[in-house]
């Protein structure tokens, strides 16, 4: 089959890898709008240890920014409840990844199996029932038409605004902060309709978001 995947984030790359493991003869093309896979990552990179173990995916040490053993959840009056790995009898609660490195790592796994990754391209138009028996065509921002039998939409952010979507902002800062601790803040004064966070990022830096 000819498979076109829109988006080279974790969802797109792991989908490509799975398809190629099922049948190496599949032709997989990933179309990514960013010029470089992983640039300008859109999340803090926190990964729950239990969920990640279920994926049975090993990652290189340089992808891991911090190993988290504690999580504090702050109420509106600034009291907090702390969950720690030692009390639970486990090694850690999870990890914080360098999302740019994580995305590149997954994309390279797919590429080594034969996936073609086209960066700096947007999928502009999708057409069905094309000539010559093809299932569909994707037109890209450079005018190329890519045929497909299966199309996978794997972008992670909404391309439009609706009441169901909340947009976030995040910055990386230098801060004297424990590198094994995640902090989450709730309350209408601090984070109306959402929450704020501090995630360790390695090398005495943190990710602060809302």
Can you put this structure into words, describing what you see?
This protein is an alpha/beta fold. Helices cover 18% and strands 36% of the residues. It contains four helices and 16 strands. It has helices spanning 10-22, 49-55, 85-88, 99-112; strands spanning 2-6, 27-32, 46-48, 64-68, 70-74, 80-84, 94-97, 116-119, 123-128, 136-140, 145-148, 150-153, 170-174, 181-185, 196-200, 205-209. The strands form four sheets. A six-stranded mixed β-sheet has the order 6-5-14-15-16-13. Strand 10 (136-140) and strand 11 form a beta hairpin. The longest helix is centred in the middle third of the chain and has 14 residues, at 99-112. It is elongated, with a radius of gyration of 20 Å. It starts with a strand and ends with a strand. 23% of the residues are buried. The model has no long low-confidence stretch (mean pLDDT 89).
């Amino acid at each position: 089959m000819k498979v076109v995947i829109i988006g080279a984030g974790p969802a797109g790359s792991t989908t490509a890898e799975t398809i190629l493991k099922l049948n190496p003869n599949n032709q997989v093309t990933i179309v990514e709008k960013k010029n470089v896979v992983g640039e300008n990552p859109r999340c803090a990179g926190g990964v729950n240890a239990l969920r990640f173990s279920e994926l049975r995916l090993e990652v290189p040490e340089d992808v891991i920014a911090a190993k988290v053993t504690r999580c504090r959840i702050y109420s509106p009056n600034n009291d907090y409840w702390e969950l720690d790995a030692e009390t639970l009898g486990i090694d850690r609660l999870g990890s914080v990844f360098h999302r740019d490195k994580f995305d590149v790592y997954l994309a390279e796994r797919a590429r080594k199996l034969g996936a073609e990754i086209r960066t700096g391209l947007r999928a502009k138009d999708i057409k069905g029932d094309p000539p010559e028996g093809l299932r569909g065509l994707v037109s890209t921002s450079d005018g190329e038409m890519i045929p497909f039998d299966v199309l996978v939409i794997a972008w992670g952010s909404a391309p439009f605004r609706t009441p169901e979507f909340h947009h976030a902002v995040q910055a990386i800062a230098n801060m004297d902060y424990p590198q094994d601790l995640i902090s989450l803040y709730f309350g209408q004064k601090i984070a109306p309709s959402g929450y704020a966070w501090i995630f360790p990022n390695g090398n005495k830096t943190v990710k602060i978001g809302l």
